[in-house]
């Protein structure tokens, strides 16, 4: 994964509402749902949810599938897995010893 792809995805994931939308989509029984379904799960207007969905679409984290008059959205799990692998490699490259940083205990 290229650095500009990593940066684009990280920007898309940089808002709590978008993280919630991804969680909602990921937990759907059939792996997909429509904007109205997501809106029912969040205390936001549908227009706001739609704007956040567009950011996730542009980053390639979800895809749209037309279903009649509605658009359904599906999480691109392979893209998230690629990000995880790239992110791990990114952290190794940022440490002086080339090893991953360990999280400090809370």
For the residues shown, what is the average pLDDT? 80
Query: What structural category arises from helix and sheet content?
Result: alpha+beta
Rg computed from alpha carbons, rounded to a whole number of angstroms: 16 Å
- Could you give the distance between the termini? 31 Å
Plain-language structure description:
This protein is of the alpha+beta class and 106 residues long. It has 5 helices and 3 strands; from the N terminus they run H-H-E-H-H-E-E-H. The chain has helices at 3-12, 16-26, 35-41, 46-58, 77-94; strands at residues 33-34, 62-67, 70-75. The chain has a 3-stranded antiparallel β-sheet with strand order 1-3-2. Strand 2 and strand 3 form a beta hairpin. It is elongated, with a radius of gyration of 16 Å. The protein starts with a helix and ends in a 12-residue tail after the last helix. 18% of the residues are buried. The model has no long low-confidence stretch (mean pLDDT 80).
Q: What is the secondary structure topology, with strand pairs?
A:
Layout: H1 3-12, H2 16-26, E1 33-34, H3 35-41, H4 46-58, E2 62-67, E3 70-75, H5 77-94
Antiparallel strand pairs: 1-3, 2-3
Characteristic key phrases:
single chain, about 110 residues, alpha+beta, 5 helices, elongated
């Amino acid at each position: 994964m290229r650095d500009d792809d990593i940066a684009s995805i990280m920007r898309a994931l940089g808002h709590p509402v978008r993280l919630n939308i991804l969680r909602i989509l990921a937990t759907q029984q059939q792996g997909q749902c429509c904007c109205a379904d997501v809106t029912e799960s969040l205390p936001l207007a549908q227009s706001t949810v739609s704007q956040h969905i567009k950011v996730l679409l542009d980053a390639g984290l979800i895809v749209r599938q037309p279903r009649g008059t509605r658009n359904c959205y599906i999480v691109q799990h392979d893209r998230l897995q690629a990000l995880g692998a790239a992110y791990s490699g990114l952290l190794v490259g940022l440490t002086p010893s080339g090893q991953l940083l360990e999280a400090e205990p809370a």
